[in-house]
Protein 1
Amino acid sequence: MGRHTADDKSHEKEHLYLPRIRDLREDEDLTQDYIAYILDTSQTMYSQYERGAKDLPLRHLIRLCKLYRVSSDYLLGMDDSK
C-alpha cells in the first residue's frame, strides 16, 4: 500500500502534455472552440484532450506543434525548451 512502481512513473510522464496544451492555448488567448476548429474536432472532444479523458491523436499533436511553433518534445513534456 502506498508503493509506486516504475509503471506508475511511466503513466505520470505520459500525461505531461496536459498542462502544456492548456497553457499554450491560454498564453495565446485562444478558446477551446477555436482550437477544436483548427483540429477539425468538437470543443467537447478537445476539452477531453486537455483533461486527459481522451488521448491526443498524433495528427492533432502535429497540428498543435505547428500552431504554437513548438517541438513535439516540448509539447509532450520531454523537453523544456520550445
Protein 2
Amino acid sequence: MLPGSSLLKQKDVLTFNELVQFSTLLNFRSNITILQEGEEENRVSIPVSNDEAHVTFYLIYKKAMKNIFHISSKDIQDIPWKDI
C-alpha cells in the first residue's frame, strides 16, 4: 500500500477533523467530501487517479420503491454537496 509508512486510523469524525486541522499529517479524502466540505486551508489536494482508487457502491431497495431510487451517477455528481 504505502511502503515504509504508518497509517493512523480514526473512527471519530470530530477527532479526525481536529487531527487534520492541527497537524501536518497527510489525509485521504474523496471527491465527494471535497465537494461537500471544500478545500482545506494550508493543504494541497492531490487526486488519486489509478484504477484501484475507485469504489463501486450498490443500493439495495424493494422493487416497489424503484421509482424513488432511479438515479444515475450524473444525478449524484449534480447534488449540491456544499449545501448538505
Protein 3
Amino acid sequence: MKVLFVNCIAASVLLLSVPTTVFAADVFIGAEASAKKDDAASENVVRSKEMKRWSIGTNALQWLNFGTPNLALGVAVGRHFSLELGGRYNSWKFKTKKTPIWNQQQTGWLGFRYWPWYVYSGFWLGLKAQYSGISTTGIWRPALETGQGVGAGLSLGYTFMLSSYCNLELGMGAWGGRYLKYTLYGCPECMDIREQGPRWFGTLDDISLSFHFLF
C-alpha cells in the first residue's frame, strides 16, 4: 500500500513538471529566434552598406553661410576607411546701409576618415589637407581680410543612417596652417593696409549638418 502511495505521488510530480519544462523550452526557443532575427537585421544593414561604395553630400550650414555652394565626394577603401574630396565656393557680395558685407572663399580639401564600426555609419574621425583663399568683411568688423592659406585639419562627428541610400551627418573640426599671402585692410573703401605678409593661423572649420547620398 505504501509503495503504491509513493508511486502515485511521484507520477503527480512528474506530470506537474512537464508544463514547466515545456514553457522553459518555449522561452529558450523564442529568445534564440529573436537573437537570430536581430543578427540577421544587423547583417542586412552591413550588406546594404557594403553595396554602397561611393557617397556625395552637401553641408546645409554652408548654404546658410551667405549661400556658399559646397560638395563632398567620398569613396570607401575598406570597412573602416574612406577618402574624401571636397570644395566650397562663394563669390557673392552684399551691401547694407552702413557697410558692405561678404564672406568669399575658394576652398578645396583632400582627406580620409576612420569609421570604428563600419564605413558611412556611426562615429568617425577625419584628417585632411586643405587650401583656402578668403576675402571677408563686415561680419565681425568693418576691416577687409584677404589671404591664401594651406594647412591641415582634424574633425570628428556622427553619421545617422536615414535609409540604405541617405545619411544625415553631424560634425565639427578645426584646421590650421600658414597664409602664404595675407593682407588686412582697415575697410573695403579706404584700403589702408593694417597688416601684410605670411602668417600662421588656426580656426574652427567643418561645422556641418550634411546630407549624403550613397551609391
Protein 4
Amino acid sequence: MKKLLSFALVMMMLMALAVPAMAEGEVTLKWMHHFQEEPLQKWVEGRAAAFEESHPGVKVEIEMVSNDSYLNTLKMKMAADDAPDMFDLDNNTYLREFVDADYIYCVDGQDVFGEVDEALLGDCQIDGVRYGSTISTAAYSIWYNKEVFEKVGVEVPTTYEEFIDVCEKIQAAGITPMATAFAERSIGFNMWFHPFYTNYCWKDDFNWAVDKASGKSTFAEDDRPKKAWEEFMSTSKYWSDDPFGTSYDDACMAIANGEAAMISNGTWILAKLLEYNPDIQLGVFGYPTKEFGGNLVMRPGSIMCVYNNTKDEKKLELTKELFASLFTPESGEAFASGAMQLSSVKGVDYSFSPVLGEIIDYPNYWSIAGFQRWGNEYEDVFFDVAMALALDGNADPEAFCAELDAQFSTIQ
C-alpha cells in the first residue's frame, strides 16, 4: 500500500512538472486588435512570436475583438483597469479621445518613425505630438474582376457616363455590375457610399465633417452631400439583386467567382478575394464622379498605440519595444506579403502582387491623412440615415439632407 502511495505521489509530482507554468519573473503583454482578415491575424501572431523569441521570459497574449464591438470593449477594459498594453484605433478622432483620458503613452521621439512614410504620420498626432503610428495605408477604390471585363468587352471607365455604360453592358451579359454587401454597414454599405461622399464633401474641405457635427453648417444648405446622394442612388439599378440581404462574404465570393464585376472597398479586401479564388485577376480604379473624375482615395490605416502604464514601468518599456518592432523593414515586408496590404514602412517591394503594384503606380489619387472626422455617434447617425433611405429607395437629396439635419440636431 505504501509503495502504491509513493508511486502515486511521484507520478503527481512528475505531472505537475510537465504542466506549463509561468516562470518566475515572466511578463505577459496584452495585444488587442480588431483585424478580421486571417492573413492579418497571422501577421499579428508572427510579430508576437518573433518578439517572444527575442525576449525570453516575455509572453504576448493576443485578443481579437470584432469590429462592431471593438471600441466599446476597449473603453470598458480601460475603465475596469484591465487595459491591453498595445492596441489600435481607427482614426485620430478616437486617438484624441483616448489621449485626453491619459490612456495613451506619447511615443514622440521614438526611433521607429525613421522607417515609416512621413506622409502617413499626420493622423497619429494630437496638437503636433505623436501618440502612435499607422501600420498601413488603405486605398479606397473600385476593385474589378479583369476576366469579367474582358469577357464582356469593356474597358475601365474614366467618366461617370462611361461607368454607367460599363454597368449597362455587364448587366446585359447577365452579370451583376456592382456587388453590394449592404447587410453589413461598416464593411458593405459604407464602402460603396464612400467614393461618393468623400469626393464631393471632403476632397476640398477637411473640416466638412466636424463642421456638420458642431452645427457650424447644415446639410440642407450644402449642395455637396446632395450631389453625392443623388449620384449614389443613380447607380442603384446595378446593385446586387438583394443588396440589403447580401453579406460581405457573399459579395466577395460573387466577385471571385465572376458572378459580379465590381466592388468598392479598401485594400484589406484583397486577402478575402484571394481566399475565395487564388487565381483571380484583379484591377482597381477610382470611381469617376461627374465632377472629379476617377481618383483613388488613400487613407492611413489603424493607429497602433501603447497604453500609458504608469503602474508597471517594466511592462511599459517592453511594450514600447514590441511597438517599435512592428515598423522594421522585416515587419513591413511580412505585413505586405502576408496580409496582402500596403505597409506604412518605406521601401517595401510589391512585385509579389500585380494589383498592389497597380495601386502604388496609380496616377490619380488624393489622401485624407489628417482630415477631421466626426465622432462615432455622428458617423452612426450619418450612415443609419443613408441606409434607411436607400432601403426605401428614396433618392431625394433634399430628404436626405433634411433627415440628417434633424437627426444631428438631437445629439449636438
